[in-house]
Amino acid sequence: MDNIVIFGAPGSGKGTYSAALVEHFGYAHISTGDVLRGEIKADTELGRIAKGYMDQGQLIPDELIIDMLANVYDSKKGSKGVIFDGFPRTIAQAEALKEMLTKRGEKMSVTLNLVVSEEELMRRLLLRAEIEGRADDNEETIKKRFEVYHNQTSPLIEWFRNEGVLAEFTYGGSKEEMISNIIKKVESL
């Protein structure tokens, strides 16, 4: 089974490119953000805890995320592949994902790192806030999310490189070109 991590700063297009891979390959999609927003909407205990962290632009504690995602992953057995969107976000989470997959006789196939300028990311996120009315997409919170990304998440790029699973895609053309390049990489696995 292909296990693909889609990686990048907030607003880099993880959801957009995940959807393209789901459509092209028929993969299952595990979006940490969607799972967490579902928990918040359902007003579960996990959702209330997660909302407190998200509203402050902080990362959700690893143990909450890892247990939740392991259950979701197990429900996707039999799929051609799984896309992890929004996870891992720290080296500890990456190690936990690697361990979770290893226990199931699986491994990470590739990490697709989406590289986009911070100015473009801010533009995208503010536009998304307007369109979707997302309270977690205001300029102050976005800046905090960028800071968290640079301090805690971007060190993962070197971790993925050392694992031999990193493929980088720099946004500079069109969304369609990015999709085509990403699909070509995944087809080569």
Question: Summary?
Answer:
This protein is of the alpha/beta class.
Task: Describe the protein in words.
The chain is α/β, with parallel strands linked by helices. It has a single domain (2-179), classed as P-loop containing nucleotide triphosphate hydrolases (Rossmann fold), CATH 3.40.50.300. Helix content is 58%, strand content 14%. The chain has helices at 14-25, 32-41, 45-55, 62-74, 91-103, 118-132, 139-153, 156-163, 175-187, and strands at 2-8, 28-31, 81-85, 110-115, 166-170. Strands 2-3-1-4-5 form a five-stranded parallel beta sheet, sandwiched between helices. Helix 6 (118-132) crosses helix 7. The longest helix is centred in the middle third of the chain and has 15 residues, at 118-132. It is globular and about 40 Å long. The termini are close together.
Strand order of the largest sheet: 2-3-1-4-5
The gyration radius over C-alpha positions equals: 16 Å
Helix-strand category: alpha/beta
H/E topology pattern? EHEHHHEHEHHHEH
CATH class: Alpha Beta
Gross morphology = globular
CATH topology: Rossmann fold
Per DSSP, the total helix count is 9
Please give the CATH architecture.
Answer: 3-Layer(aba) Sandwich
Low-pLDDT windows of residues? none
| End-to-end distance | 11 Å
**Residue fraction in strands:** 5-15%
List the helices and strands and how they pair.
Layout lengths: L1 E7 L5 H12 L2 E4 H10 L3 H11 L6 H13 L6 E5 L5 H13 L6 E6 L2 H15 L6 H15 L2 H8 L2 E5 L4 H13 L2
Parallel strand pairs: 1-3, 1-4, 2-3, 4-5
